[in-house]
Amino acid sequence: MRRISILGATGSIGQSTIDLIKRRPDDFEVVALTGGCNAKQLARDAIALRAQIAVVDSAECYAELRDLLAGTGISCGCGAQAIADAARMPADWIMSAIVGSAGLPPGMAALEQGTTLALANKESLVTAGPLLMDAARRYGARILPVDSEHSAVFQALVGEPMDAVERVIITASGGAFRDWPMEKLQTATVAQASAHPNWDMGQRITIDSASMFNKALELIETREFFGISPKAIEVIVHPESLIHALVGFRDGALMAHVGPPDMRHAIGYALNWPDRSHLPVDRLDLAAIGQFTFRAPDDARWPALRLAREVMATRGKAGAVFNAAKEAALDAFIAGQVGFMDMATAVDMTLAKMSAQSDLQNAPISLEDVMETDRLSRRYAIEALTTLG
Ligand code: NAD
Ligand code: MG
After folding, report:
1. Do 23 and 140 belong together in one domain?
2. What's the rounded Cα separation, in Å, for the pair 272 and 270?
């Protein structure tokens, strides 16, 4: 029996993880499940999976969770500290699937117990890559990528020496506005941005796919996780979303990872690693698919990609600034306060302001340092967004 915890259990990745675990009830013992505020869902899953503890982030739903779990023997908790404490409970495999920089402290807490961390929360690597990778080394923990592109790269690298890698290419669907006329983008609505052509994901990452902020985060994630030079990381638009990434070796070979757009593949690979087990994902019918197509990404349509290159060149605290400003800009877009293209402008303004005022190129020395940069960047981003809205 492997002991498993899921941080962000009520979300899209969390639910896909639970789907896989429910299919093999004899293999896993569930320790902790955490969620934001969906107490009903969390309680239902905690009972079905016989978890030891369920924790919500928001105090508003704590009473509901406590009532739903009364008499079940399942403990419950509430708040960011309780979520980090749940991540410290001994487990062999912990899924990090909270959305946003809120996922960083519990992810770090999980690493401190020297466990295996399945990392969907890309924001952790973007905001604090060196701290996270260093903690994994120090505590003898292992991080397995869950983002589909990074899982694809990880799989293409099995048995290959890193010094033979010449380049890594991550694919992007192009999101909801791939074929929209440029002049219409600023007026795109939240509903339009929330409709992904291929993947079924949480709302925030779906909008980030339309703006390519998701791909921008993934460029930085690739740099931080695999230690690959930014010059060797490319993005290619691949509307079918069937090739997830390619690794180019020094002999000219390109190893592509091909699979259906279903996150249960990448989650299942991390769950079964280093083995492979049967997974309930569609098998591709290549003759029916017929062709894979590719396009060069357009920096004018997707300024987030250019900003990611700047962030990778600066490194230091730039990732934390970029992510926090992006989260604030996304909040403002979802709230209808700014237009779609204003998100990138606000992130650009925040990076410029933080660069003028602080030691952006110096790496954060602690989690608190990252969170402080995050708080300040959000404040500047909100100021920038107010001038744009
Ligand atoms: P989601 O919005 O569907 O779920 C997020 C989870 O985090 C939920 O359980 C939510 O309740 C919880 N949460 C939100 N804010 C919180 C807070 N402040 N404190 C504690 N918990 C909080 O998101 P998702 O699409 O499942 O994505 C989760 C992570 O995985 C993100 O980092 C995303 O970028 C990454 N990811 C997602 C996909 C996908 O297909 N959905 C693919 C690759 C990577
Ligand atoms: Mg991805």
Report:
1. yes
2. 6
- Residues 43-62 have pLDDT tens digits of 999 999 999 999 999 999 99
Same domain, 26 and 140: yes
Establish if 294 belongs to a structural domain: no
Ligand nearest to the CA of 78: 1
- Quote the ligand 1 centre to 287 CA distance (angstroms): 35
Local structure of residue 233 (DSSP, 8 states): E
In this structure, the answer to whether residues 17 and 137 fall within a common structural domain is yes
Best residue for ligand 1 mutational test, from 5, 201, 219, 222 (most atoms within 8 Å of Cβ): 201
Cα 149 to ligand 1 centre (Å): 17
Range of the domain at 199: 151-183+190-259+282-289
Q: pLDDT digit string (tens) for 322-354?
A: 999 999 999 999 999 999 999 999 999 999 999
pLDDT digits (tens, 9 = 90+) for 64-101: 999 999 999 999 999 999 999 999 999 999 999 999 99
Ligand number nearest to the C-alpha of 106: 1
Structurally, how many domains does the chain consist of?
A: 3
Residue 344: CB within 6 Å of ligand 1? Answer: no
Shared domain check, 43 and 103 = yes
Q: Are 14 and 94 in contact (CB under 8 A)?
A: no
* Within-domain flag for 133: yes
Q: Is residue 80 part of a domain?
A: yes
DSSP characters over 32-100: EEEESS-HHHHHHHHHHTT-SEEEES-GGGHHHHHHHHTTTT-EEEESHHHHHHHHHS--SEEEE---S
124 three-class SS? helix
Q: Is the pTM of this model over 0.85?
A: yes
Ligand nearest to the CA of 263: 1
Could you tell me if residue 182 is left (phi over 0), alpha (psi between -120 and 50 degrees) or otherwise beta?
alpha
Within-domain flag for 296: no
Kindly give the number of the ligand 1 atom that is closest to the alpha carbon of 205: 34
